[in-house]
Amino acid sequence: MTVGDYHTHGNYFGYDAQGNEVIGNQYYDTTSGTDSENFSRPDRDGASELAAYLGKPNYFLWLGTPSGAIKQYSIATGETATLKPGN
To answer: Distance between CA atoms of 33 and 31, rounded to whole angstroms?
Structure first.
């Protein structure tokens, strides 16, 4: 029985405007708009498409974040809940 899927997001790594390396506790990439602490649009859209394909309207998506949070997204309601807060 499929009820959902789980994945993790890695910590953002990149460079600031001055060319300095940025790593650790930087959860938002201003260049791409990636927010590692939350579900991305592709995360939500992909899960919605998979749920429709499987015929599972109550499909869930879970996310582990760099800060240690665990979040849940409900396809049926479109709501996100934090099951475990991060650091």
So the answer is: 6
